[in-house]
Amino acid sequence: xxxxxxxxxxxxxxxxxFRNIIFAIAIVGxxxxxxxxxxxxxxLTQTIKDINLLIxxxxxxxxxxxxxxxxxxxxxxxxxxxxxxxxxxxxIAPFWTMNTINLLVPSGGIAGLKYMQTKLYPETKFSExxxxxxxxxxxxxxxIFSWLVVAFFSLIWSDNIDLISFKIVYIILxxxxxxxLLIILVTIAVDFFKNxxxxxxxxxxxxxxxxxxxxxxxxxxxxINDHLDQIHRLVVEDKNFLWPLGFxxxxxxxxxxxxxxxxxxLGDILNIGIIIVAYSFALGSSVGSIFAGGVGxxxxxxxxxxxxxxxxFSLALPGTLIYRLVSVWIPIIPGAYYYQQYQNKLNQxxxxxxxxxxxxxxxx
Length: 364
Description:
Blueprint: H1 2-15, H2 18-36, H3 41-49, H4 53-57, H5 60-78, H6 92-104, H7 109-120, H8 126-157, H9 166-187, H10 190-211, H11 217-237, H12 242-265, H13 272-285, H14 297-308, H15 313-329, H16 332-363
């Protein structure tokens, strides 16, 4: 009996990851937040009833612009055309579909990037596309930092700076300094970073093999070095920085504007500083979600941050959930439609090529 119990515990431990733990903490936090706000539930239902749908429809425009900026970022960093940096409208559908694939397909980001590469950049190496995707998160981090500076001055101007603990400010600054150092190492001191990652993989190789026996350190080093070379070329050799950063800043602004419109439709105009802080915290913590798109963690952190910054729970929760509905779930509908069209074309192409293969075999 004890041996069976030990095997169960061992199985649970093997399945328990850091992301699962963070997700569980977030769920407990959301439950405690909801339970402590039970007296406000009547106000919550009233807030939802009073939503202005005409204003909410306006949120569609910044959402489309956000996808436009995402497409613009990839075009500016992969094609690097300074004369024509803006993407065409035909670029929007593939990125909308890519985001849908990232949410619904088990392989997540890899499947989405493969689709985007096939549709828009078939002649580009996948390592270059995935390196551009890695840089997308770095440029987004820089964009969020720039908007956090705006939030800081906005909260000072509105006398709401006392709502934010300076310990949190120090943590954010520390993380941003680490991010800056990472950018310098990856983009400029690429050889140093190659040697560093090679040395770092030596002591952890045995640990990784316990979880993934097929792990090959040499293949991992080759994979990392290839991506580092691509990153160095995309940013340093091509001197490509301003347009990708500009698209990232505009994309973050589109998300912030979407949140502002959602709360406006609920009858309140929030301070932009509060929106930026809640958005930044939610986006940063969403990496701990066990689900794609940060589902669970994102909603918990954003709602909690809004409440901490003085937004009533009866407004913070529906505002967060409606924003996620507009930004994540509703776009799945057109994304799934385009993806189905793509799959149908692949199936038709497979049916056309199969008879040719059979006939060539028979003739031989």
